[in-house]
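Margin note: ligand = magnesium ion.
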Amino acid sequence: MKSLSFRNRIALNYIITTALLIGLVFVTIYVVVEFNVSGHLNEDLQREVDRHSNEIEIKDEKIALKRHKEWMEREHNTVGVDPVFIEFLDLEGNLIDKSPNLKESHLLYDSAQPDNVFYNGELAEKRIRQVQVPILDKNGKRVGHLLVAVAREGSEVVLETLRHILLITYPIILIILFFVARFIAGRSIKPINEIINTSNKITRDNLTERIPLPHNKDELYILSDTINNLLDRIEKAIEREKSFTSYASHEFRTPLAVLKGTLEVLIRKPRQQEEYEEKVKYCVKEIDRLNHLVDELLILTRYENQKRSLKLENISIKQVIEETLKFFSENIEQKNIHINTEISSENITLKTDIYLFSTIINNILSNAIKYSHQGGDIEIKVNEKDKSVFCEIKDSGIGIPQKDREKVFDKFYRSTDHSNIKGFGLGLPIVKRFCSLLNIRVEIFSKESVGTTIRLQIPQS
Ligand SMILES: Nc1ncnc2c1ncn2[C@@H]1O[C@H](COP(=O)(O)OP(=O)(O)OP(=O)(O)O)[C@@H](O)[C@H]1O
Ligand SMILES: [Mg+2]
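Resulting structure:
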């Protein structure tokens, strides 16, 4: 059974059920016909019993027929396909009279059989249906037996023919039904073969193949559609992975080429001390940038695929903001940026992962500072509302052009309008990923040349 193909298994299961059902129907048909045939024979016998009971005369406990001659003539004429046999016996079982069609044979009186009950017996090797009726005198005293029988040959032929027909047609019907069921099952699971064929064609480099959708919107349609959607997602993920790798290598190659060029120029001939210092400082800055890129790439790959277990603890949002501002204090001073912090309550706490949350605030503030003009303003507002903490970081910097607003959360996406400001386009993708891990809703409002506001809605539970 285990090695049977799917369609054979469906056909077999179907045929077992059908076999039981058809078997039941056939048996019922046979039993009903047999019951009817016996019923008819019983009716015939009963009619004969009634007729003959009226023609019996009892004188001095002796049984005689009222019109014996007429009766003999009539009984002669009843010889037909299913003749009726009559026999009168006295109490000792001695023959008094019998219908001429019995010729030399005798109907047997069976004392074991109850009176007036129809039963099957034999007469000269022929099958008959018989009944024994007591003959009673005026006082109700038993004086003899009337035996009536009718040949069953005709009805037996009918039953036998029916039995043959049913026994022959039964396996034929089942065999035909098995092949029909197999054919239909084969047709209905055709999409599964297509799924297998298409899946065999799909490789890492050929993800464009899709399973043709069946016409009927059934379970196989849903299965094919689900697999196609899965393939879409896998294809996109692989595309993203490919472009991520190519972007990342590009981002590494450029600063490495610059570093190599600077150092090569530096050693070509002896230079002034100041020139050495300036070039080395430049190289250190580039190396810092590369370090930053490595950090961001590591964070993204580490948190990209699996959901890492979060270390939730109670943290003070005020403290996180103050520490981040301290971290950027040098850049803030250099750009002479004015920071205004408004926190509605001193002790707003959040139950969250401190590392992820600090990284989010760090990246948003880093952008606010980086894209602010010299002497710009940054406003930080924190307040609680409806079991959520809202944190808004608003700068008055260069703003994000409308065309870029949707894309700034994509990896390596940077607005083309500020090539002088360095970055890798990985800060906001990290913010987006961490926000989704912490269930934080992040919104961005920005107007070119006016400024940008990033709003976080942090659930408190
Ligand atoms: N506060 C902001 N003001 C103006 N533009 C912004 C601001 N924040 C983000 N952007 C735009 O969104 C882009 C993506 O920001 P993201 O932080 O992801 O990258 P980045 O700052 O360029 O580099 P990285 O953060 O990886 O060092 C930026 O290049 C910039 O064009
Ligand atoms: Mg950034």
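The domain at 6-160 is CATH 3.30.450 (Beta-Lactamase).
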